[in-house]
Design brief:
InterPro entries: Cupin_8, F-box-like_dom_sf, F-box_dom, JmjC_dom, JMJD6_ArgDemeth/LysHydrox
CATH class of the largest domain: Mainly Beta
GO molecular function, one term: cis-regulatory region sequence-specific DNA binding
Number of helices: 15
Order of helices and strands: HHHHHHHEHEHEHHEEEEEEHEEEEHHH
Shape: elongated
Largest sheet: 7 strands, mixed
Organism: Micractinium conductrix
Strand order of the largest sheet: 1-2-11-6-13-4-3
Number of strands: 13
Family: Belongs to the JARID1 histone demethylase family.
Pfam family, one: Cupin_8
CATH topology of the largest domain: Jelly Rolls
Strand content: 15-25%
CATH superfamily of the largest domain: Cupin
CATH architecture of the largest domain: Sandwich
Low-confidence stretches: 170-177, 381-389
Helix content: 25-40%
Distance between the termini: 59 Å
Structural class: alpha+beta
Radius of gyration: 24 Å
Amino acid sequence: MEHPHGVQPALGVFGDGGDAAAALRSAGLGALACLPDEALLNILETLGPRDLAHLACASRACWVFCQHDELWKGLCLEEAEGGWDFQGSWQDTYLAAKAPAHRRGARKPRRVPLQSDLLYTPWLCATAAVDPAWLEIDNVERRSGLSVAEFREQYELPNRPVILTDVVLVGDQPISFDAYCKYSDANNDELPLYLFDKTFCKTAPQLAEDYAVPELFAEDLFSLLGESRPDFRWLIIGPFKSGSSWHKDPNSTSAWNGVVRGSKKWVMYPPHVTPPGVRPSQDGADVASPVSLMEWFMSFYEHRDTVGYTPKECILKEGELLFIPRNWWHVALNLEGDTVAVTQNFVSPANLTHVLAHLRSRSPALVSGCSKASRAGFTSHGPAVGGFF
């Protein structure tokens, strides 16, 4: 399949057309040709829509860079403030939101044989199929009928993941988000928009009434903080191939993730094993990794065993719930359109000491979802939860 604007990967400089592509870039960008593509796009991100439109008229090379849909996606999200109706591309979506009377002509798409990995790779990742080989391994235990004591002894205290098959009850109540669903069906983004709503219980109280925390996770010591507790629960909705990038859950908490609709591919590594292609900063506050999940799967999944550990992998299906132990690295790739899940972070006696140590960190960047005053307030509850200090 060809890139819609004719862009080619930069490896083409070693084959046919390399000289012509280099000449096209040099002549078309003029003095800007000395800049790497990353720097050029950083400059273009500072331009408004009118400036992008004017620059696109300067040359074929400028036209290609100004068509980069991530630029128009940023403008839509920044200026339209949710008042957009996805039109198949972010540029067309922006035009529809800002100039409703505009109608793009049905002209033959323009092809410019510019060579750029930065422009080509997002399109490749967005259009690539999910490799069936990524879905073959399923080495996370599935359990049902566990008591709280059994769960704590067998999984929470040893800090091991497990899938629980009997705690999520899936109803048939439809959830309609017209604009989001239209985008979800039609988008071709490398990084699809991922709805991650931490306030859903306040903005839609009826949703909060539709689920109860499973008994295995009911003892949540963060509840001692009341309204000042850190962010802890989210409604997650995402289209096919969307998902969360490599991360550890905040504040050394454990978590559970229950799928209401769809399915998710999970890959997990224990706290002491850094996934291939991932580079955390020394203090852990920042993480460098491939831009999208698809890029990681396409580039690093086959090397997943090269870090001295075979990761835990599974496909979490509708009606199943995954326990994610504290500080485990993990990613989740949505395998179906409009995958819906609920996730919640919690603190139990089994991981309280780790959470308190994290909250007392000297680096504010390592503490998520709460103020310094809230952290101090939490540690003051020590006697009430029984000598875990």
